[in-house]
Amino acid sequence: MKVQYDLHLHSCLSPCGDEEMTPCNIVNMAALLGFQMIALTDHNSCRNVPAAVEAGKRAGICVIPGMELCTNEEAHMVCLFPSVEQALLFQEYVEQRRLPIPNRPDIFGRQLVLDEEDRFLDEERNLLIAAADISACEGASFARKLGGAAFPAHIDKGSYSLLASLGTLPEEAGFCAAEITARGDIPKLLKQCPALESMLLLLDSDAHSLETMQDPAPWLDLPELSPECLMEVLNGDITVPWGRE
Ligand SMILES: [Zn+2]
Ligand SMILES: [Zn+2]
Fold this sequence. Notes:
Elements: E1 2-9, H1 23-33, E2 37-43, H2 49-59, E3 62-70, E4 76-80, H3 84-95, H4 105-108, E5 112-114, E6 120-123, H5 136-145, E7 149-152, H6 162-166, E8 177-180, H7 186-192, E9 200-203, E10 218-221, H8 227-234, E11 242-244
Parallel strand pairs: 1-2, 2-3, 8-9
Antiparallel strand pairs: 1-10, 3-4, 4-7, 5-6, 10-11
This protein binds zinc ion (2 copies).
One zinc ion binds next to loops.
Protein backbone atom coordinates (compact mmCIF):
# COMPACT_ATOMS: atom_id res chain seq x y z
CA MET A 1 0.00 0.00 0.00
CA LYS A 2 1.16 3.50 -0.87
CA VAL A 3 1.72 5.26 2.46
CA GLN A 4 2.12 9.03 2.53
CA TYR A 5 4.45 9.89 5.36
CA ASP A 6 6.26 12.62 7.25
CA LEU A 7 8.80 11.09 9.61
CA HIS A 8 10.22 14.29 11.10
CA LEU A 9 7.94 16.61 13.09
CA HIS A 10 8.50 18.72 16.20
CA SER A 11 5.97 19.40 18.95
CA CYS A 12 5.79 22.15 21.56
CA LEU A 13 8.31 20.09 23.57
CA SER A 14 11.10 21.21 21.23
CA PRO A 15 12.18 24.69 22.33
CA CYS A 16 12.03 25.83 18.70
CA GLY A 17 8.61 24.21 18.13
CA ASP A 18 5.51 26.43 18.11
CA GLU A 19 3.27 26.10 21.16
CA GLU A 20 0.40 25.33 18.77
CA MET A 21 2.27 22.13 17.80
CA THR A 22 0.37 20.11 20.39
CA PRO A 23 -0.01 16.33 19.98
CA CYS A 24 -3.69 16.67 18.95
CA ASN A 25 -3.09 19.59 16.58
CA ILE A 26 -0.24 17.77 14.83
CA VAL A 27 -2.28 14.60 14.38
CA ASN A 28 -5.39 16.49 13.24
CA MET A 29 -3.40 18.57 10.75
CA ALA A 30 -1.74 15.40 9.42
CA ALA A 31 -5.19 13.84 8.97
CA LEU A 32 -6.46 16.96 7.16
CA LEU A 33 -3.44 16.92 4.84
CA GLY A 34 -4.02 13.24 4.06
CA PHE A 35 -1.05 11.54 5.74
CA GLN A 36 -1.31 7.91 6.82
CA MET A 37 1.93 7.83 8.81
CA ILE A 38 3.82 10.49 10.77
CA ALA A 39 6.59 10.41 13.37
CA LEU A 40 6.99 12.73 16.33
CA THR A 41 10.69 13.56 16.62
CA ASP A 42 11.41 16.21 19.24
CA HIS A 43 15.00 17.17 20.00
CA ASN A 44 16.59 14.71 22.46
CA SER A 45 13.29 13.76 24.11
CA CYS A 46 10.25 11.52 23.59
CA ARG A 47 8.10 12.98 26.36
CA ASN A 48 5.24 13.98 24.02
CA VAL A 49 5.31 10.66 22.18
CA PRO A 50 2.76 8.84 24.42
CA ALA A 51 0.20 11.64 23.86
CA ALA A 52 0.81 11.77 20.09
CA VAL A 53 0.46 7.99 19.72
CA GLU A 54 -2.85 8.04 21.63
CA ALA A 55 -4.11 11.02 19.59
CA GLY A 56 -3.07 9.15 16.43
CA LYS A 57 -5.13 6.10 17.41
CA ARG A 58 -8.21 8.31 17.73
CA ALA A 59 -7.60 10.03 14.38
CA GLY A 60 -6.74 6.80 12.54
CA ILE A 61 -3.16 7.85 11.78
CA CYS A 62 -0.14 5.67 12.43
CA VAL A 63 2.10 7.76 14.72
CA ILE A 64 5.65 6.42 14.99
CA PRO A 65 7.41 7.09 18.32
CA GLY A 66 10.65 8.98 17.67
CA MET A 67 13.32 11.46 18.61
CA GLU A 68 15.74 13.72 16.74
CA LEU A 69 18.99 13.03 18.55
CA CYS A 70 21.76 15.65 18.45
CA THR A 71 24.91 13.52 18.42
CA ASN A 72 28.36 14.44 19.65
CA GLU A 73 29.32 15.17 16.03
CA GLU A 74 26.81 18.09 16.36
CA ALA A 75 24.69 16.28 13.80
CA HIS A 76 21.00 15.43 13.87
CA MET A 77 19.81 11.86 13.53
CA VAL A 78 16.19 10.70 13.51
CA CYS A 79 15.62 7.62 15.69
CA LEU A 80 12.31 5.77 15.40
CA PHE A 81 10.83 2.96 17.47
CA PRO A 82 8.13 0.33 17.14
CA SER A 83 6.48 1.24 20.46
CA VAL A 84 6.22 3.95 23.10
CA GLU A 85 8.01 1.68 25.60
CA GLN A 86 11.08 1.32 23.37
CA ALA A 87 11.14 5.07 22.71
CA LEU A 88 11.05 5.80 26.44
CA LEU A 89 13.94 3.38 27.04
CA PHE A 90 15.93 5.25 24.39
CA GLN A 91 15.03 8.51 26.10
CA GLU A 92 16.40 7.23 29.42
CA TYR A 93 19.67 6.40 27.64
CA VAL A 94 19.85 9.88 26.09
CA GLU A 95 18.94 11.62 29.36
CA GLN A 96 22.00 10.10 31.02
CA ARG A 97 24.20 11.55 28.30
CA ARG A 98 22.62 14.98 27.91
CA LEU A 99 24.30 17.98 29.48
CA PRO A 100 22.06 19.29 32.28
CA ILE A 101 21.90 22.85 30.94
CA PRO A 102 18.77 24.63 32.20
CA ASN A 103 16.48 25.91 29.46
CA ARG A 104 16.06 29.68 29.11
CA PRO A 105 12.43 29.88 27.93
CA ASP A 106 12.80 33.63 27.23
CA ILE A 107 15.53 32.87 24.67
CA PHE A 108 14.84 29.35 23.40
CA GLY A 109 11.10 28.98 24.08
CA ARG A 110 9.15 26.79 26.49
CA GLN A 111 9.35 22.99 26.34
CA LEU A 112 5.83 21.73 27.05
CA VAL A 113 4.83 18.17 27.93
CA LEU A 114 1.13 17.52 27.22
CA ASP A 115 -1.28 14.62 27.51
CA GLU A 116 -3.41 13.07 24.76
CA GLU A 117 -6.06 15.79 25.24
CA ASP A 118 -3.38 18.52 24.96
CA ARG A 119 -3.63 19.22 28.69
CA PHE A 120 -0.50 20.57 30.38
CA LEU A 121 1.49 17.92 32.28
CA ASP A 122 4.92 19.44 32.79
CA GLU A 123 7.57 21.76 31.43
CA GLU A 124 10.94 20.18 30.62
CA ARG A 125 13.57 22.16 32.55
CA ASN A 126 16.75 21.04 30.78
CA LEU A 127 17.54 22.51 27.38
CA LEU A 128 16.83 19.86 24.77
CA ILE A 129 18.79 21.20 21.81
CA ALA A 130 22.33 20.68 23.16
CA ALA A 131 24.35 17.75 21.79
CA ALA A 132 24.24 14.51 23.79
CA ASP A 133 27.47 12.62 24.39
CA ILE A 134 26.51 9.87 21.96
CA SER A 135 28.05 9.34 18.52
CA ALA A 136 25.85 8.67 15.50
CA CYS A 137 27.16 5.08 15.40
CA GLU A 138 26.43 4.46 19.09
CA GLY A 139 22.98 6.02 18.88
CA ALA A 140 22.03 4.13 15.71
CA SER A 141 23.22 0.85 17.17
CA PHE A 142 21.31 1.32 20.44
CA ALA A 143 18.15 2.32 18.55
CA ARG A 144 18.41 -0.93 16.55
CA LYS A 145 19.03 -2.94 19.69
CA LEU A 146 15.67 -1.70 20.94
CA GLY A 147 13.98 -2.84 17.73
CA GLY A 148 14.07 0.64 16.23
CA ALA A 149 15.89 2.31 13.35
CA ALA A 150 17.89 5.49 12.72
CA PHE A 151 18.69 7.67 9.75
CA PRO A 152 20.75 10.85 9.37
CA ALA A 153 18.52 13.95 9.26
CA HIS A 154 18.48 16.64 6.54
CA ILE A 155 21.86 15.58 5.11
CA ASP A 156 21.78 18.34 2.50
CA LYS A 157 21.72 21.11 5.14
CA GLY A 158 24.91 23.04 5.83
CA SER A 159 24.62 22.65 9.60
CA TYR A 160 23.59 19.92 12.05
CA SER A 161 23.89 17.29 9.34
CA LEU A 162 26.24 14.31 9.39
CA LEU A 163 27.33 15.03 5.83
CA ALA A 164 28.20 18.63 6.75
CA SER A 165 29.96 17.59 9.98
CA LEU A 166 31.94 14.59 8.69
CA GLY A 167 31.90 15.04 4.90
CA THR A 168 30.53 11.51 4.59
CA LEU A 169 28.14 9.09 6.28
CA PRO A 170 30.05 6.77 8.64
CA GLU A 171 29.89 3.25 7.22
CA GLU A 172 29.92 1.70 10.70
CA ALA A 173 26.57 3.37 11.43
CA GLY A 174 25.00 0.98 8.90
CA PHE A 175 22.44 3.46 7.60
CA CYS A 176 20.05 2.08 4.97
CA ALA A 177 18.06 5.33 4.71
CA ALA A 178 18.87 9.04 4.80
CA GLU A 179 16.72 12.15 4.94
CA ILE A 180 16.95 15.06 2.55
CA THR A 181 15.00 18.32 2.64
CA ALA A 182 12.11 18.84 0.24
CA ARG A 183 14.31 21.08 -1.92
CA GLY A 184 17.33 18.76 -1.79
CA ASP A 185 19.36 18.45 -5.01
CA ILE A 186 19.51 14.64 -5.33
CA PRO A 187 22.01 14.43 -8.26
CA LYS A 188 24.41 16.76 -6.43
CA LEU A 189 24.09 14.70 -3.23
CA LEU A 190 24.75 11.43 -5.05
CA LYS A 191 27.94 12.91 -6.45
CA GLN A 192 29.03 14.04 -2.98
CA CYS A 193 28.09 10.76 -1.32
CA PRO A 194 27.86 7.79 -3.75
CA ALA A 195 26.74 5.49 -0.88
CA LEU A 196 23.33 7.18 -1.15
CA GLU A 197 22.73 5.42 -4.48
CA SER A 198 21.70 2.25 -2.69
CA MET A 199 19.82 3.97 0.14
CA LEU A 200 16.21 4.90 0.70
CA LEU A 201 15.95 8.71 0.53
CA LEU A 202 13.26 10.14 2.77
CA LEU A 203 11.75 13.58 2.26
CA ASP A 204 10.36 14.95 5.50
CA SER A 205 9.14 18.41 6.45
CA ASP A 206 11.00 18.87 9.79
CA ALA A 207 8.02 21.11 10.58
CA HIS A 208 8.11 23.21 13.74
CA SER A 209 4.74 24.87 13.05
CA LEU A 210 1.37 23.79 11.65
CA GLU A 211 1.79 25.99 8.53
CA THR A 212 5.05 24.30 7.57
CA MET A 213 3.62 20.78 7.65
CA GLN A 214 3.80 19.99 3.94
CA ASP A 215 1.35 18.41 1.53
CA PRO A 216 1.91 14.67 1.53
CA ALA A 217 3.91 14.18 -1.65
CA PRO A 218 6.50 11.58 -0.57
CA TRP A 219 5.36 7.96 -0.28
CA LEU A 220 6.59 4.51 0.63
CA ASP A 221 4.94 1.40 -0.72
CA LEU A 222 4.69 -0.63 2.49
CA PRO A 223 3.35 -4.19 2.78
CA GLU A 224 1.39 -2.97 5.82
CA LEU A 225 0.78 0.23 7.74
CA SER A 226 2.64 -0.52 10.96
CA PRO A 227 5.67 0.75 12.90
CA GLU A 228 7.24 -2.74 12.70
CA CYS A 229 7.02 -2.74 8.93
CA LEU A 230 8.59 0.73 8.73
CA MET A 231 11.49 -0.44 10.96
CA GLU A 232 12.15 -3.35 8.57
CA VAL A 233 12.26 -0.96 5.63
CA LEU A 234 14.52 1.57 7.37
CA ASN A 235 16.87 -1.21 8.47
CA GLY A 236 17.07 -2.60 4.93
CA ASP A 237 15.47 -5.93 5.88
CA ILE A 238 12.97 -5.41 3.08
CA THR A 239 13.19 -3.16 0.03
CA VAL A 240 10.10 -1.31 -1.13
CA PRO A 241 9.30 1.18 -3.91
CA TRP A 242 9.39 4.82 -2.82
CA GLY A 243 9.11 8.22 -4.41
CA ARG A 244 7.20 11.47 -4.49
CA GLU A 245 4.15 12.56 -6.48
ZN1 LIG B 1 17.49 18.88 12.72
ZN1 LIG C 1 14.14 18.56 13.28
